[in-house]
Amino acid sequence: RIFYIFIDERLDIVDAFVNDSSIRTFIAQDFLGRVPDFERLVRKFIRKKANLEDCYKIYVAVNKMPKLIEYIGEFNGPKKGVLDHLIVVPIREMIDVFSKYIEMIETTIDMGRIGNHEFVIKPNYDKDLQECREKQIELESKMHDDLTTICNKLSSHLSTTPSRSKKNGAESSKEPIRLVYDPKQGGWLYRINRKESATLQKQLSNITINFITILIYQKK
């Protein structure tokens, strides 16, 4: 008897989603795309292999839950009671459980650097971290300065003339050479577009900027 009740409730949820396109669209397009594979993440935490990016993924998923509750709360169909019982109430309880976790993430992780796919602790959290961040900022500034030199030095080898421009008050380099942060490479690099890279690599294996040798290679 209990088994049949569970089946009926599941069918009621499916029926509600089928007949309400706004909820269905939100869940399919906006919600599920930001929800990570929790089973895989749990295994990483159990094995003590989780990193700050994994912690942030959980943070993002939990922060999406109130919007899900809002959409389901606007549902006024005959299955509303089932949705409240099986989805809304458990999610609200989960949000309460994770409230301290959300606070911890916002207090410790540097949200301003996540756009670069850098998952790090806020520098003001620790004196040593602050000193390290100041050195990073200094080095990043030098790399941006060197980008102009690199563009000028490689201009005779490129079919497209590099140019510098300002966007929203910030200086940027247009193709074919850009300074980018690549988490897979573990840091910053000067990226040359595919059109130029193969030709350039045949002509030069490296260049020297401010007594530093920069290798030129093509990503496999």
From TrEMBL:
GO terms for biological process: mismatch repair. It comes from the Eukaryota. Residues 7-140 form the DNA mismatch repair protein MutS core domain. InterPro entries: DNA_mismatch_repair_MutS_core (IPR007696), DNA_mismatch_repair_MutS_sf (IPR036187). Residues 157-176 are annotated as: Disordered. One of its GO terms (molecular function) is mismatched DNA binding. This is DNA mismatch repair protein MutS core domain-containing protein. The lineage of its organism: Eukaryota, Metazoa, Spiralia, Gnathifera, Rotifera.
